[in-house]
Amino acid sequence: MKQHYKGRPPRAGRKGSVLIAVLGLVALLSVLLVTFLGEAVERIRYNGLLDRSSDLRERAYSGLEIALASMAQTAEIDEGLRSISQGWGSPLDTLGFTPFEDCELSISCEDESARLPLAGLSQEQLSVLFEELGLMSSDADRLAIAFLDWMDPDDNTRINGFDGQDYERAAIPCKPSNAVPRSYEELFLIEGFATHFRNSDGSPSERFATLREAISLQNDAKVNVNNASPFVLRVLAELGGFDEARLMRLLEGGDRQRGNIDDGILTSLDALSPTGDTSLIAYEAQLLRLRVVATRGDARFSLDVLARRNATRSSSTTRNLSTKKLSEQYKDFPQSPESSLRYPFSILQIRENRND
User: Is 111 exposed, middle or buried (0-12, 13-18, 19+ CB in 10 A)?
Assistant: First the structure.
C-alpha cells in the first residue's frame, strides 16, 4: 500500500537536489578557474616577452654596430665595398665568432645601390626598362611619361602625359605625390601602371615582382654593377650598348656562378667597349640595407636599417701628417675634436620589428 506524504518532500530528495546544485557550482568554478589560469599564463608569457625584447633590442643594436664595423674594416682592407663575394653580405660569418652566448643573432646585408634608381631615371631609361619587362614600345613610352609626371614637382602635364587634374578626374581620384613613391604599392596609382602589372584577378603579376626587385625607391645614385641582378644587367647592357653575356662571364668568374669568392669584380667597362649610355653604372656599393634579428626562445627583435657609406679621409693624407711639424698638422683638421671624427656610415632609416 503506497504512502502519501503531505507537506515538505522527503529529506533524501532534498539532499539530492543540494548535491546536484553543489556539483554544478563546482563545475562552473572549474571552468572559470581554467579560463582565468589560461589568460594568466598568456599574460605572463606576454610580459616575459616584453621584458626579454628590451634586452634583445640592445643585442640587435650591438649586432648592427658589429656589422658596420666589420664592413668598414673590409672596405679599408679591400679599398672599397664592391661585391658581395668580399664577404660583407654576412658580416658575422666573415668575422667568425658568436657575439653573444645568451641569444641567437643573425645579420645579413644587401646592396641597395645594385638596383636601378627610380629617382634618377630619364624618360629614355624608363622606356628601356619597361620594354625589357615585355611592354610594347608605345606603351613603355606612355608609362615612362606618366612616371615622370607623377614624380616631378609640378602638376603640369607633359605631352601624352597624365598629371594634376587628370588624376582628380580619374575613376579613383587621387593627387600625385610630386615625389618618388614612398612604397611600391603607390606605383599602382600611376596612370596605366595597373593595366600592365596586375593579373586578371587584380593581384600583382610576376612582371611587377621583377620590377620591384630591379628598382630602388631609396637609391638616388648610380648602380653598382658588381652586385646587380641579371635583369638589371640586361637593362644596363641595352642602354650601354655592350654584350650582356660577356659581362655576366666577367662577373661569374671561373665557376660560372655568382656569389662565390672567385667572382670577377669590375672597376671599369673598358673590356666591354660600350657604345651607349653608361651614366648609370658604378663599381662600388654606396647604399646598404641590413637586417638584424636577435632571438631567444619565443622572443624576437629585428632591425631593418638603411645605411649610406661616407667618404673617408684618404690614407695618403694620414701618412703625410707624420712628416709635418706638429703646428702644421693641426691645420688640416677642424678645431672641434668632435667634428674631426667621421663615422664610416650614415644611418638613413631604422625600422624595428617590421615583417614586410
Answer: buried
For residues 324 and 318, what is the distance between their CA atoms, to the nearest angstrom?
11
Given the candidates 1.10.287, 3.30.70, 3.30.1370, 3.30.1300, the CATH classification of the domain at 54-112+286-352 is: 3.30.1300
Question: Position of cell 638603411?
Answer: 306
Residue range 116-218 forms a domain whose CATH class is: mainly alpha
List, by residue range, all CATH 1.10.40.60 domains of the chain. 116-218
Environment class of residue 322 by beta-carbon count within 10 Å: exposed (0-12), middle (13-18) or buried (19+)? Answer: exposed
User: What is the DSSP secondary structure assignment for residue 187, as one 8-state letter?
Assistant: G
Residue ranges, CATH 3.30.1300, the chain: 54-112+286-352
| pLDDT per residue rounded down to tens, the chain (356 residues) | 555 555 555 555 566 677 777 777 888 888 888 887 777 777 766 655 555 567 889 999 999 999 999 999 999 898 899 999 888 999 888 888 788 888 899 999 999 999 999 999 999 999 999 999 999 999 999 999 999 999 999 888 889 889 888 898 888 888 999 999 999 999 999 999 999 999 999 999 999 999 999 999 999 889 999 999 999 999 999 999 998 898 898 888 777 778 777 788 888 888 888 899 999 999 999 999 999 999 988 889 999 999 999 875 443 333 333 333 333 433 444 444 444 556 789 999 999 987 65
- Three-state secondary-structure class, residue 344: coil
Question: What is the Cα–Cα distance from 139 to 144, expressed in whole angstroms?
Answer: 9
Residue 283 C-alpha from the chain's centroid = 21
- Cell 660583407 identifies what position? 88
Alpha helix (H) residue ranges in 122-267: 123-132, 137-151, 165-168, 193-197, 206-214, 230-240, 244-252
DSSP 47-71: HHHHHHHHHHHHHHHHHHHHHHHHH
DSSP class of residue 83 equals: -
Beta bridge partners of 307: 288, 347
